[in-house]
Design a protein that fits this description.
Elements (H helix, E strand, L loop, with lengths): L4 E6 L3 H12 L5 E7 L2 H11 L3 E5 L9 H11 L4 E6 L4 H10 L3 E4 L4 H12 L10 H8 L6 H11 L4 H11 L7 H14 L5 H14 L19
Parallel strand pairs: 1-2, 1-3, 3-4, 4-5
Helix pairs in contact: 7-10, 8-9
């Protein structure tokens, strides 16, 4: 590899950040630290100014409403060519799943050794995925999750608002007048979603719909309804 990989490190803990920077600088032939940041706001600003190839970001930041997942999502929208490596001291595998869903290329524990940091950064730079081997089971579970159909996804924002099937059908029919559907079709979509994700109650389905919408940037809170009584299912 002839080109040096330009790296920006974002972490609010000085000792951790300086340690990561020191490890990366040990491999000076391949890597070049272009900057450091202490929080998501400063990090996103420096990414715009310094144009790194790879951002190594902490998962959680104290005193900030934003976190590493927000950084990944923002860069995915604004600068999709910048690759992200998310680091954390939290051993829970679901954080890795959330990071990859947001668009991260690599996930790493903060106490990983220098060689593993280098493997993660190089994989991210090459557009490949890297994660700790011990989380392979968690990754396998995520990759095998069932997928929703476009019709099921279309129903979810209304489910997230707690709307009845009849009300959802009414709203969708208003948007798609030539193609009328009835509440039985909505019930079938709901049942299919429950079966796919082993959801056992209507309340759990609403919770799932809210999380799905939040995770995938689907607006349901400010959903515009075309009839005032829709929430009551009239």
């Amino acid at each position: 590899m002839n080109q040096k990989i330009k790296i920006l490190v974002i972490d609010d803990h000085p000792v951790v950040r300086q340690g990561v920077v020191a490890m990366i600088r040990e491999y000076g032939e391949k890597f070049h630290i272009v900057g450091e940041a202490v929080n998501p706001q400063e990090g996103l600003s420096k990414v715009q100014a310094l144009q790194p190839d790879v951002v190594v970001t902490d998962l959680m930041f104290s005193g900030s409403v934003q976190n590493g997942i927000d950084i990944v999502k923002e860069l995915g929208t604004q600068l999709p060519n910048v690759r992200c490596v998310v680091i954390t001291s939290n051993m829970q595998g679901h954080f890795m799943v959330e990071a990859f869903k947001a668009g991260a290329k690599a996930f790493l524990y903060k106490d990983s050794d220098g060689k593993e940091y280098m493997r993660a950064i190089e994989a991210a730079f090459d557009g490949m995925t890297y994660f700790p081997p011990e989380l392979s089971v968690e990754m396998e579970k995520w990759s095998r999750l069932p997928k929703l159909t476009p019709a099921q996804v279309r129903v979810l924002p209304y489910v997230a608002k707690g709307m009845a099937s009849k009300a959802i059908a009414k709203e969708l029919n208003h948007l798609d007048a030539p193609k009328q559907i009835d509440c039985r079709t909505i019930d079938q979509h709901k049942s299919a979603i429950k079966q796919k994700f082993e959801i056992d109650s209507s309340g759990a389905l609403v919770s799932f719909a809210i999380k799905y919408c939040d995770d995938n940037g689907i607006d349901y809170k400010d959903l515009k309804l075309h009839t005032k009584r829709s929430l009551l299912g009239f």
